[in-house]
Each structure stands twice: as C-alpha cells, then as structure tokens.
Amino acid sequence: MAYLKKMPLDELKVDRAFVQNMLTVKEDERIVRSVIDLAHHFDLKVVAEGVEDLPTLGFLRTLGL
Questions:
Q1: What are phi and psi of 32, to 5 degrees?
Q2: Amino acid 9: pLDDT
Q3: Residue 4: CB partners within 8 Å, gap ≥ 6?
Q4: What is the pLDDT of residues 30-65, one digit of tens each?
Q5: pTM here?
Q6: How far apart are CA 20 and CA 55, in angstroms?
Q7: CB neighbours of residue 12 within 10 Å
Q8: From CA 44, how far away is CA 17, in angstroms rounded?
Q9: What are the tens digits of pLDDT across the range 14-30?
Q10: Taking the alpha carbons of 22, 15, 6, 46 in that order, is the dihedral positive or negative?
C-alpha cells in the first residue's frame, strides 16, 4: 500500500488467485472489488490476471473493469 503513495504507478493488478475464485469465494470477490475501487480512486488502470471464462469477465465488467 505504501507504493501507492511513493511510487509513480499507472496500473494495479489483481492477482489471479483472487480472480479465479471470485465467483465462488465471497472473500475473494470482496478483495477483487476492493482492489478495483482502490485503483479507480487513485486513477489507476486495473489489470485482472487469470480471467479464463466469460462469467468471470462479465462479472469484472460489472465492477468497472
């Protein structure tokens, strides 16, 4: 989190470990939502790793990705 303040970042990645399970594991969904919200508040591009199916992609799109 300190890097958000100190480093000149332009994107924030959501790790595949959270993305792959976010449709079935509520905690992973909350983490993905939070990372996307955080990135948007800092005007950062968001990259979601591990998107392997259309339902996951569709859900990410509803979250603003």
A1: -60, -45
A2: 84
A3: 38, 42
A4: 999 999 999 999 899 999 999 999 999 999 999 998
A5: 0.85
A6: 11
A7: 17
A8: 21
A9: 999 999 999 999 999 99
A10: negative
Cα Rg of the chain, angstroms:
12
Interatomic CA distance for residues 5 and 19, integer angstroms: 25
Q: How confident is the model at residue 6 (pLDDT cuts 50, 70, 90)?
A: confident
Q: What is the DSSP string of 4-62?
A: HHHS---EEEEPHHHHTTTTT-HHHHHHHHHHHHHHHHTT-EEEETT--SHHHHHHHHH
Query: The tokens of 50 are what?
Result: 């591990």
CA 54 to centroid of chain Cα atoms: 16
